Amino acid sequence: MPYPPPHYTDDDTAFARRIMAEHGFALLVADGLAASHLPLLFRHEGPRGALYGHLTRANPICAADNGAGLDGRAALAVFSGPHAYVSATLHDDPARAVPTWNYASVQARGTLRALPDAAVRPHLDEMAQAYEGRDGWSVSDAPDYVAALTHGIIAFRLEIDRLTAFRKMSADKPLAMRKRIIDATRAQGEHAFANEMATTLTITDPE
């Protein structure tokens, strides 16, 4: 059997972009296995889109040669969407089943490009607005403090070369079982996951 199984992958670009937009705190891994958790912003640029973020100059991903080590490096950004534990008791025959973990995730591969120093402040403005909203905290609320920090920050762009989305939502199981999983996880307070899994019912079982 190929890995991951075909029923775990999803070639719906709109789904992948939604997961990246709604769950922007990602794991960025550069070649050489340097890794960092950080927020990333998706933009509709190029054939597959691009991701924007920033790192401190001391970060292993960009520390080499005072930041020159970031530019041109291959990288992988992993976005984790809603996920939940699925008990074997939810199967039709628990004696012939094992527990599993259902999840939605996206992997975006591409090349890192350092942005000019002048792009750091606009990038921070955009990042703050994305999470604070128009009426929340703004970079302009702490201009001197932010200006002092920008000297130690590198903003970057990751142009996406390959986008792989995973939607492991028991799609290979009977509809009644999938509905049980949704009800059980919702009862446990996993509402984001239950709502995400509910969207797959209309995808795999059209009216």
Compose a concise summary of this entry:
This protein has a single domain, classed as Electron Transport, Fmn-binding Protein, Chain A (Pnp Oxidase, Chain A). 28% of the residues lie in helices and 32% in strands. It is built from 5 helices and 8 strands.
Write the layout of secondary structure elements.
Layout: E1 9-10, H1 13-22, E2 25-30, E3 35-39, E4 41-43, E5 50-56, E6 74-86, E7 100-114, H2 120-132, H3 143-150, E8 153-168, H4 175-187, H5 191-204
Antiparallel strand pairs: 1-8, 2-3, 2-6, 4-5, 5-8, 6-7, 7-8
Helix pairs in contact: 4-5
Write a concise keyword list for the protein shown above.
single chain; 207 residues; alpha+beta; Pnp Oxidase, Chain A; 8-stranded antiparallel sheet; 5 helices; 28% helix; elongated
Structure description:
The structure is a single chain. This protein is of the alpha+beta class and 207 residues long. It has a single domain, classed as Electron Transport, Fmn-binding Protein, Chain A (Pnp Oxidase, Chain A). The protein has 5 helices and 8 strands, in the order βαββββββααβαα. Strands 1, 2, 3, 4, 5, 6, 7 and 8 form an 8-stranded antiparallel beta sheet that branches. It is elongated, with a radius of gyration of 20 Å. It starts with 8 loop residues before the first strand and ends with a helix. The mean pLDDT is 90.
CATH superfamily: Electron Transport, Fmn-binding Protein, Chain A
Indicate the low-confidence ranges by residue numbers.
none
Total E-strand runs: 8
Which sequence of SSEs, written as H and E, runs from N to C? EHEEEEEEHHEHH
Distinct helical segment count: 5
Count of discrete domains: 1
Helix content: 25-40%
* CATH fold annotation: Pnp Oxidase, Chain A
Distance between the ends:
30 Å
**Overall 3D shape:** elongated
Instruction: Report the structural category.
Output: alpha+beta
CATH architecture: Roll
What would CATH call the class?
Answer: Mainly Beta
Mean pLDDT: 90
Radius of gyration: 20 Å
**How much beta, percentage-wise?**
25-35%
Main sheet characteristics: 8 strands, antiparallel
